[in-house]
Amino acid sequence: MRSVAKAWAFLAAMSLTLIVLGHHYGGREGLLFALTVALGINSFVYFYEDRRVLSLFQGRELEGQDSFGLREMARRLAVKCRVPTPRIVLLESNSPQAGVVGRGITHGTIILTNGCLEKFSHAEIEAIIAYQIANIRLLNTLTFAVGSFIMSFSLFITETLDAAFRLLLVEKRNPQFFISNIITRITAPFIGFILRLSIRPSFYQAADTLAAQLIGDPKMLATALWKLESYAETLPFTVPMSTAHMFAVSPLTTLRWARYFIAQPRPSERIRKIIGYYPV
Questions:
Q1: Which residues lie closer than 8 Å to 126 by C-beta, 6 or more apart?
Q2: Contact of 23 with 31, CB cutoff 8 Å
Q3: CA–CA distance from 31 to each of 18, 21, 27, 206 (Å)?
Q4: How far from each other are the two terminal CA atoms of the chain, in whole angstroms?
Q5: Around Cβ 83, how many Cβ atoms within 10 Å?
């Protein structure tokens, strides 16, 4: 699948770059060191990135009583999609939002906030879960994991440089002042460009199409996306920027520099592709 090919291509390109630089600057020892680092990065991304992302949200896995019938809903949709039933993790937040993490068809976890359960109908929740299972079936979760690692690594470097810059030059300034994170702001367009190279809008649209087929009601999926968009603007859910692309609708605002890290197509475009018109 295209999303998987892109993920492995980015990992291969990153590994090759490290190996070439290691050989150029360190000879045989540098080559061996770079090869070890590259293998370590690839192993971490594939085996542990999904766990790292889940640890950022401190949610609880759905176990025991399930008054909303989420596990049965996920099981039924997973059977139709021919994938193992994913885990469901609930987050304590009134902001409706839903995402998915994983590294393959057999390792998927759906993230739902309590706001979704409180503010969405049973059919809308089913549409949201169908969309996340579609991402698992299409292996978009591996691409999301690679994108998360790229973002985390890049932002770690820029934020570290920003912190050093503040200590050296502007230690007494307000941390929210523009110059306090000027390096991150300057590099944000480039980091966002790399993210969107690895995660294409077509990946989300393919998941939309498959999810609509799973539930047999495209308009219900369109309604769920429209409501998620509305709540993202009026009752935003705060997430690490490196994970925003994993959610059905981006929780990042379009009004500040974080907009460069929005990988999802506009909900209006997705809804038009699903049902042919917008708004719902």
A1: 73, 77, 215, 220
A2: yes
A3: 9, 8, 6, 40
A4: 31
A5: 18
Q: Yes or no: say if 15 and 42 are a contact pair by the CB < 8 Å rule.
A: yes
Report residue 180's pLDDT band, with 50, 70 and 90 as the boundaries: low
CA angle 26, 38, 160 (to 5 degrees): 85
- Kindly state whether residues 40 and 114 are assigned to the same domain: no
User: Do 13 and 66 share a structural domain?
Assistant: no
Is residue 205 within 8 A of residue 273, CB to CB? The reply is yes
Q: What is the pLDDT of residue 127?
A: 97
Phi, psi of 230 (to 5 degrees): -65, -45
* DSSP 8-state secondary structure symbol assigned to residue 247: B
Overall average pLDDT of the 70-91 stretch: 95
Q: The tokens of 106 are what? A: 């057999």
Tokens of 108: 């998927």
Nearest CA among 82, 81, 86, 106 for reference residue 98 = 86
Domain region containing 96: 59-141+200-275
Report the CATH number that the domain containing residue 80 is assigned in CATH: 3.30.2010.10
